Amino acid sequence: MRYIEPHAHMVSRTTDDYERMALAGCEAVCEPAFWAGYDRSSPAGFFDYFCQLTQHEPKRAAKFGVKHFCWLCINSKEAEDVKLAEEVIELVPSFLQSENVLGIGEIGLNKNSRNELKVLERQIELAAKHRQLILVHTPHLEDKLKGTRLILDVLKNDSRISPERVIIDHVEEHTVEMVLDCGMWAGMTLYPETKATPARAIDILELYGSERLWLNSACDWGISDPLAVPKTALEMKKRGHAAKAIEHVVFANPKRFLSQSAHFKLD
Amino acid sequence: MTRRQILDLYFLDARHKLVELAAFLDRVERAGGAEDFRLRDFRTAAALLGSKKRGKAKAVLLTFSDPTRKPLTKAEGKGSLGAWKRK
């Protein structure tokens, strides 16, 4: 079955993962800019990273017939240093015309601090100014509820932001409803130990409908599974979901949201 | 799916996870030292499983969540512990 992986950090994955994803039916992978597992020491580190996302990684994916897209920003884990964040934000516009850039992301919050909020607001401003789609990371574990509320408040208070052009990622049972109620899209991340499992993600689909929900693996350098989306498609089949309904969630939905960017083309 | 079909598909997996939780509690109770906020919230959340009310996954997640609304003055570190440590 064809699918789109709408959130994967492929710079942290092996080339074998691309091959396995292609064999499983992956047609496109979308890579938000994120934390490398350590703090970069200067804006130059981010400049190189943005070059990697816009120039090198698409070529690596193309070897397996997979289209590669990306999102650019400074992530929330490096947003406590506002001066560094502002310098990185200044770098982003020069990359926005690269043909695989979909928007600003993954912006958001990590520990829900004032500086993180300030940087989030600057990046929402950037997205509004350049009419970009927005992909939002919500905090982990005990910080997710509070962070999701704070993020939604900022987005709802900005009249320039159209909710249907925003995806709030890593939702779980306690945050999905508030996101969908705002008219935004919600992403469910399938992790072996945190976030959602395939069974829980399908529960959420059954409870809230699949109109504005997508599934992603968010595979990175941590414990994660680049085949989590097709494995969840298989789980949906076991649960009696029809092939058309499965394709709607794993292919049509991400295609519909991402096609709001002129850069998202599968052919 | 019917209740029977759900049980056929998930019962063994859920049973396995429940035994793991019980063994975890036995293990932590055998160990010396004081309980902390994580274990306190874990016991609160585990007690929710006996309820017949729906929305147990959400209720468990809320038990571990920071319910406050005010942003922190400063982020101290980057990681999360899985339960909210009240100030």
What is the CATH topology of chain A? Answer: TIM Barrel
Strand order of the largest sheet of chain A: 1-2-3-4-5-6-7-8
How many β-strand stretches of chain A?
8
Considering DSSP H and I runs of 4 or more, what fraction of the residues of chain B is helical?
Answer: 55-70%
Total helical segments of chain B: 3
| Largest sheet geometry of chain B | none
Give the overall pLDDT of chain B as a whole number: 96
Instruction: Give the CA-CA distance, first to last residue of chain B.
Output: 45 Å
Q: List the uncertain runs of chain A.
A: none
Percent of sequence in beta strands of chain A: 15-25%
- What does the overall shape of chain B look like? extended
The domain tally of chain B reads 2
Mean pLDDT of chain A: 97
Alpha plus pi helix count of chain A: 9
Radius of gyration of chain B using CA atoms only: 17 Å
Task: Give the radius of gyration of chain A.
Answer: 17 Å
The domain tally of chain A reads 1
Could you describe the largest sheet of chain A, including whether it forms a barrel? 8 strands, parallel
Low-confidence stretches of chain B: none
CATH superfamily of chain A: Metal-dependent hydrolases
The level-1 CATH class of chain A: Alpha Beta
